Amino acid sequence: MIALRSILFNTAFYSNMIIRMIILFPYYFLSPRKKALSVPKGWATSSHWLMEKIVGTTFTIEGLENIPKGGYILAPKHQSFWDTFALLPWLDDPVYILKRELMWIPVFGWYVAKQKMIPVDRGAKGKVMAEVLERTKAEMQKGRQLIIYPEGTRRPPGAPPSYKFGIARLYRDLDVPVVPVAMHPGLFWPRRKFLRFPGHFVVRILPPIAPGLDADAFHEKLMHDLEAASDQLLIETAANNPDLPLPETARARLAELAKAG
Which residues form a coiled coil (predicted)? Predict the structure, then answer.
């Protein structure tokens, strides 16, 4: 049954995305940039509905009151394709730093370019990265929210942390708050797998880290706060979803936490 529901959901999810991009193409590209955001936000909302109705997966967001006004960096855990779009309906005007290859995808890349997302060559250094920083500063001065994943790439739930220092440099140079977000969507929408699992999970938005810390001190605090919240959520999610098949990384981490008391 889970396999059948997963196939139905994946078909509906990607069909919904493609059909919306085609039908709403004129509205999206003739509208002002920020007004056009209603299209991807509507797609995200409809995707949540499809996941609930077809798979039986729901979520709750805690800590929305921790989101500051204006520009800030949102720093979520990254486990799944789900967390690349899921929070769009709750963000005013997000901007992503993303792989430049995504801009080359027909139609999708045009949608991304319309929102003035910031493409980057992951192997770039020096002058190129300085240009990326300047573009990011320019967008955030408009009050936009930068979404960046501290670990850089998707990680399995419970896997040992692997935080990159790039977010600390952005925190230092942009001089804005950073809002950590703990969640475990990878337990329900695993990376590199087509299966989708029913259940309920929590997205926990933590209090923002104010600007002004030394980059090293910030990096240490971000990792401490986000990992502590993630561990607590892993315990809660496993307890509240006893039939959920946990990946080996999650089982190992739960065993470590149980042993530590």
Answer: none
* Domain span at 219: 59-260
Q: Are strands 178-182 and 199-205 parallel, antiparallel or unpaired?
A: antiparallel
Q: How far apart are CA 255 and CA 253, in angstroms?
A: 5
- Which whole number is the average pLDDT over 88-94? 95
Residue 47 located in a structural domain: no
**Which run of H or E residues covers position 25?**
helix 25-30
Nearest to 208 by CA among 88, 68, 93: 68
Q: Report the predicted TM-score, pTM, of the whole model to 2 decimal places.
A: 0.92
127 domain-assigned: yes
Contacts of 172 (CB under 8 A, 6+ apart): 215, 218
39: left (phi over 0), alpha (psi -120 to 50) or beta: alpha
Percent of the chain with pLDDT over 70: 97
Q: Is residue 37 part of a domain?
A: no
Query: Could you write out the DSSP letters of every residue in 101-165?
Result: GGGGSTTHHHHHHHTT-EEE-TT--THHHHHHHHHHHHHHTTT-EEE--TTSS---TTPPP---T
Distance CA 177, CA 225 (A): 14
Query: Per the domain annotation, does 225 fall within a domain?
Result: yes
pLDDT category of residue 122 using cuts at 50, 70 and 90: low
**Domain total for the chain?**
1
Alpha-carbon radius of gyration of the chain: 19
Spatial neighbors of 182 by CB under 8 A, at least 6 apart, are 77, 203, 204, 206, 226, 229, 230, 232, 233
Rounded to 5 degrees, φ, ψ at 13 are -60, -50
User: What percent of the residues of the chain are helix, what percent strand, and what percent coil, each to the nearest 5?
Assistant: 50, 15, 35
Start-to-end CA span in the chain (Å):
37
